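Try this one yourself first.
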């Protein structure tokens, strides 16, 4: 679905909101950041629950409760640990890179290299793009 952003580009603009056009290079940078976020997201969800469950089961009160109770308590505890990992992993993974990112104009296509701001009249060296989620 998002491959069009890498082919057709995404809008790049300056700090005043002036849009200078679509940049496939910025689209590819944004897709790279989104891919990184999606690769990092499952790591804590897959790695933390076993360690947390072992730590909980070593606690004397928790161990006795799980041994004396039917299957439901152990299952509820594991489910709670997994949900907690998901709740903390998602914001952390999304926070790896902000939604709006800056890029030097020199990293983009040549048409963005020598831009002048219509608001200030100064050269535009840094552009902003919205990478999305």
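Now uncover the answer:
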């Amino acid at each position: 679905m998002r491959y069009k952003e890498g082919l057709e580009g995404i809008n790049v603009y300056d700090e005043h909101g002036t849009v200078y056009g679509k940049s496939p290079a910025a689209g590819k940078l944004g897709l790279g950041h989104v891919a990184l976020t999606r690769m990092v997201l499952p790591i804590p969800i897959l790695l933390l629950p076993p360690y947390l469950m072992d730590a909980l089961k070593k606690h004397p009160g928790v161990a006795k409760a799980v041994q004396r109770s039917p299957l439901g308590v152990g299952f509820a505890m594991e489910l709670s640990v997994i949900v907690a990992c998901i709740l903390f992993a998602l914001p952390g993974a999304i926070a790896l890179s902000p939604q709006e990112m800056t890029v030097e104009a020199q990293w983009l296509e040549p048409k963005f290299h020598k831009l002048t701001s219509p608001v200030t009249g100064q050269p535009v060296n840094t552009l902003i793009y919205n990478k999305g989620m």
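Discussion: The radius of gyration is 23 Å. The CA atoms of residues 44 and 89 lie 6 Å apart.
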